[in-house]
Amino acid sequence: MNPMVTIAVRAAREAGRVITRNFNRVDRLTIADKGKNDFVTEVDRNAEAAIIAVLRDKYPHHAILAEESGTHDGNEYQWIIDPLDGTTNFLHGLPQFAVSIALKVKGRLEIGVVYDPIKEEMYTASRGEGALVNDRKIRVSNRKTLDGALLGTGLPYRDFRFMENYMGMLKDLIQDTAGVRRPGSAALDFAYVASGITDGFWELGLSEWDFAAGALLVREAGGMVTDIAGGEKFLETGNVIAGGIKVHHAMLRRIQPHLDSKLTA
Ligand code: 2AM
Ligand code: CA
Questions:
Q1: DSSP class of 229
Q2: pTM of the model as a whole
Q3: Residue 132's domain spans which residues?
Q4: What pLDDT digit, counting tens, does each position of 155-171 carry?
Q5: Mutation probe of ligand 1 site: the residue of 34, 65, 85 with most atoms within 8 A of C-beta
């Protein structure tokens, strides 16, 4: 196994400890409002500090991009960290959230770790070596059509510029599939596609730290990840479709009629 995966796993477990210690004690937490529907707690900050401490200790020269503390300069190795993906769920006592840690080397995704501290599920991937949950190999589903497919998605919650586009996609996809779910942690949504629990996923306007690790999980589990126009710019635009190859293709065809230039630019 890539030794950097071992370090990322250690960092994710440290963050998981901070998170589980505070779960269901939200009344005691200080909650700051970063903006409309954008909350951050001391748990996010402490979990992020725990991750950065582990990474810095081992790799003092690597760069870091982290949701709460922004960019820390360094070399061509860059860690991308979301210490608590699904903060809104966490705040409400809904046990669906995760730690997400990815590593890019010269701009290319190399490692992805997503950890669900409630279920104690550690999803890991490194480029060219496949994807695992708790050391068991995972694969995307091999469903051939949307018929019978279970899809994950993220509803717009803060930026409503693409509401009409999104609703058009949702309307088509709920009619063509077995159902659509909105669990609320993009990192875990990708982990579920990677392990074949859901057959596909799409969302508009994600941030890179929400799904950099998840995107590598899906690819290493044999799936497709593209932007909503079918291209490679998903980390830049945050508009993303993921799934097994056939389901991804079918989703792309259903989504395409609802695109316009402001979404694909
Ligand atoms: P976060 O908790 O790390 O901010 C899903 O749509 C993604 O959007 C999640 O990964 C979540 O990441 C983010 N998000 C932020 N605020 C949200 C909200 N109020 N409702 C749903 N998702 C939210
Ligand atoms: Ca996030």
A1: T
A2: 0.96
A3: 3-137
A4: 999 899 999 999 999 99
A5: 85
